[in-house]
Amino acid sequence: MKLAENIPGLAAPKIRIANLTKQFAARGGTFTAIDNISLDIAPGTFFVIVGPSGCGKTTLLRILAELEKPSSGTVEVRADRPGRPSNSMVFQGDSIFPWMTVWDNAAYGLKLRGLPEAEVKETVGHYLDKTGLTKFARHYPHQLSGGMKQRVSIARAFANDPEILLMDEPFSALDEQNKTLLQEEVLRIWEADKKTVVFITHSVDEAVTLGDKIMVMSAHPGNVKAIIDVPFARPRNVLELRSQPAYGEMVYNIWGHLREEVQRAKAQEEART
Ligand SMILES: Nc1ncnc2c1ncn2[C@@H]1O[C@H](COP(=O)(O)OP(=O)(O)OP(=O)(O)O)[C@@H](O)[C@H]1O
C-alpha cells in the first residue's frame, strides 16, 4: 500500500482511507460490514476506534493489516523508511509463539528481516526493559501470566518498528489492575517514539485515557459517526488523568455519541434471533 501524491503545503496523512466498503458473502446476497468510510490519520496519532459490537472495527483493522481486501475504495499507508514492515498487530489474548522464548518472540520480526545481531540485541533489550520483561527473557509463554504475554506481544510489535501499529482490544482479557499497568506502559513507550497507532477498544475509559482522536462508529453497516479530539496533555499519567473532572466530561461526551449506536446494534441483534 502506497500513499497517493502529497498535496503541497499540507501535512501528508500517514493513513488515508477513501470510500472504503467491505462486503462479505451472505446467505442469498451480500452483507455490508463497512459502508463507504473516508478518513485521514495524521502521522504520530494515537487513533482509537470505539463502536458497538459487530459494527466493523476488526474488519477495518484487518484491511489496514492487509489481511482482508476492500470490496471497493482504497486504504493507503505512507511508507517513511524503506525496509520497515508496513504494520504490526497486537490482538486480544495469545498472539505470541508458544514454542519460542520471550526473547525470541520479541526478536522474531527483526531476525526475519535479517538485521545485524547487535541491532537485534539492542532493540529487543530496549523493549523488554520497557515492558518489564528483562528478567523473563528466557521464559516460555506457558510460564507467563496473561498480562506478561500481552507485554511480550507489545514488545514484539514496537521492536518490529512498523510504519503503523494496529491493536485490537489488546487488554480486554486482563483484570483491571493489569489493564491499568499495561495502559501506562503503552503510553510510556508510545510517547517516546510516537508511532501512528490504530487501537480498537470497547472501553470508553480506555479510549479517552490513550487516544489523541476517538472515532465512534455507527452500528451496522459500519460508518463514521463522530471523530472527537482528546485534548489532554502528554505525557499522561493514567490515574491522575482519571481524577480530573474534564476526563469524566470527555467520557460522558463519547458515551453520548455511542449510546444510540449500541442500542441500534442491540435491536439489530434481537431482530436477527
Ligand atoms: N469473514 C466474514 N464473513 C462474513 N461476515 C463477516 C466476516 N468477518 C466479519 N463479518 C461480519 O461483519 C460484521 C463486522 O464484524 P467485525 O468483527 O468487524 O465487528 P466488530 O465491530 O469488530 O465486532 P466486535 O466488537 O464484536 O468484535 C459482523 O456482522 C460480522 O459477523
From TrEMBL:
PROSITE patterns: ABC_TRANSPORTER_1 (PS00211), ABC_TRANSPORTER_2 (PS50893). GO terms for molecular function: ATP binding; ATP hydrolysis activity. Residues 15-244 form the ABC transporter domain. CDD domains: ABC_NrtD_SsuB_transporters (cd03293). Keywords: ATP-binding, Cell membrane, Membrane, Nucleotide-binding, Transport. It comes from the Bacteria. Pfam families: ABC_tran. InterPro entries: AAA+_ATPase (IPR003593), ABC_transporter-like_ATP-bd (IPR003439), ABC_transporter-like_CS (IPR017871), ABC_transporter_ATP-bind (IPR050166), P-loop_NTPase (IPR027417). Belongs to the ABC transporter superfamily. This is ABC transporter ATP-binding protein.
